[in-house]
Amino acid sequence: MLDAYDFWADRLPRADLIAIDDFWQRFAELGPRVERYARGRLPNIDIHAELQAALGGLRDRVRGEFEFARGGGLALAITPELFHTRRPLARAFLRRAPELRGWAIRDARSASTEIPDAVRAILHRSRSEALAVEELVARRGAHRLVDLVAQGFGDHDFIADQAGVIFAVLLGERADQDWLGASDGRRWPMLGLRNLLASRRQTRNDRWLSEFRTTARAIIEGFEAERPEKPFVEVPMRVEDCVDFRLRPVGGDPARRHDAMQVQSRHPALTAARLAGARIAGVRFSRFGEIFCGLKVMRTGSSSFAEVADIATFGARIEERLAERRCGGVIGRASGIRHVYVDLALTDIEAAIAVLRRALADEGVLGPAWLLFDEAGLEDRYLPLTAKTPETPQE
Predict the structure, then answer these.
(1) Alpha helices (H) in 190-345, listed in sequence order
(2) Each residue of 279-335: pLDDT tens digit?
(3) Is the domain defined by 232-384 classed in CATH 2.60.40?
(4) C-alpha distances in angstroms, 290 versus 79, 80, 240?
(5) What pTM does this model have?
(6) Residue 44, Cβ density class (10 Å: 0-12 exposed, 13-18 middle, ≥19 buried)
(7) Phi, psi (5° rounding) for residue 288?
(8) Least C-beta-crowded within 10 Å: which of 179, 240, 343, 377?
(9) How far is residue 277's CA from residue 262's CA, in Å, rounded to a whole number?
(10) Sheet harboring 146-152: ordered strands across?
């Protein structure tokens, strides 16, 4: 099943897709050299520099790293680092990769299972000679995110940043992208503690890093248990199951729900996160891989939606069409000054787009309409759905 990043990876500019294909042609020669390097047969080369060079013009937007895969094979991770807007680009490497025997291809770094390996990775990625973080606590944060409180030595910001690196190394980069919330770095109140703690650091690393990973995993599992038990396509939307949000419209990105005044939602946790501007990851709000999107329709003479009941009826018809194809459900609707919105949870995005386009035509919606995407890094991507829809949403 395609997710939102798969969908947009296939729609990257042609120049990016050509550059990715060129990389895989170069990797056909580089891959065997990596295998010999991993066996110690090419000791005096910088294989990592060769990998970055192979990325060509894309090396400033993604990073390549070699890893060992389970079963003794090798893995190549093409990562966008912390830049969520580049995740479709990294995913495109994965989708366009050829069959490579003995290789696993990923678009995120995997977790380090052994603590000594994890420490080395943490130091490398935080560009530090020693762990500045001496204590790290994971807590349940807002909007199903894991917040971190770290204490250690040095600059507050560096402590906080290294705490985030620890989370990513121990739980994997995908967990970092989807689950990590705020990171708060605090200095030890007594610098004299440093020497005492430093003498215990090696034995403490094994203990507290393992304990932190266990705690963070437990928090994520707790959040996962809070997700709906059924996909929304299987449960019709009912008013009695919804929560109302009343808003004061504010200026903002016209690609978003900037003019919404009243929102009705049967997934209030997701809606609250969106309204708060929190980073959205579908995995935090669905256990079925649903893609959370919004249908945005401009009010025009032919489709003014003058009454609230008109919006409800329109949303119900959209829901019925999606249910017929079993490609998604409606989770909310909103009334705005110049637009109306229908919030969606899609299970088959390409089928859903065809359904939405047909439904809009049948409903007589001739004016502009877009499909918005809630997933992190896709907030500025929108898909026109009618012939009169400009590429970019307008005020």
Answers:
(1) 193-225, 268-275, 308-325
(2) 999 999 999 999 999 999 988 876 657 665 688 889 999 999 999 999 999 999 998
(3) no
(4) 23, 23, 23
(5) 0.90
(6) exposed
(7) -120, 15
(8) 240
(9) 17
(10) 133-140, 146-152, 180-187
